[in-house]
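Lab notes, practical 5.
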Amino acid sequence: MEVKLHMPTNNLKPKVPSEGGPELEDIVAKAEHALSEMEGDYEVLVGDEVTQISEFLQTAKNDPSEGAHCIKEIHTIGHNIKGQAATFSYPLLSLAAKSLCHFIQENAAVAEERLDLIEAHVNTMRIIISQKTKGDGGKEGQGLITALEEAVGKILAKD
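Output from the prediction step:
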């Protein structure tokens, strides 16, 4: 017995012009314009996300039984910041979030015990956002990230 597959008709092809349409440069220009307009919104959004991390951090401090859940939520939010920040010209913020995520991924139990280091990451992110530090942050910005990464390295090495 032979089975025949019925292929749906392609009703879309006649509706799409084979020539013409917007030029690639126009598409890129529109996308860049849209991103630049969203930058102001991003600063508010990322500020809210850092506030959420602070709230989870405070909950973990006040109720250690919620620590594991809070650390997981902090990681999720940090991961979002890490992915979005560079898109909106905040690569330094992305690096701070990357350090936070690395700390939690390597050892969530240690991260749960060392909430002070999570707080240092949060404070660094707040500084970057409040000062609207775009780009690499220069020598000072790189120093902040290096200090976070070294602290994470030392704490994880003790484990």
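Observations recorded by the TA: The mean pLDDT is 88. Helices lie at 24-62, 67-85, 91-106, 108-113, 115-130, 138-158.
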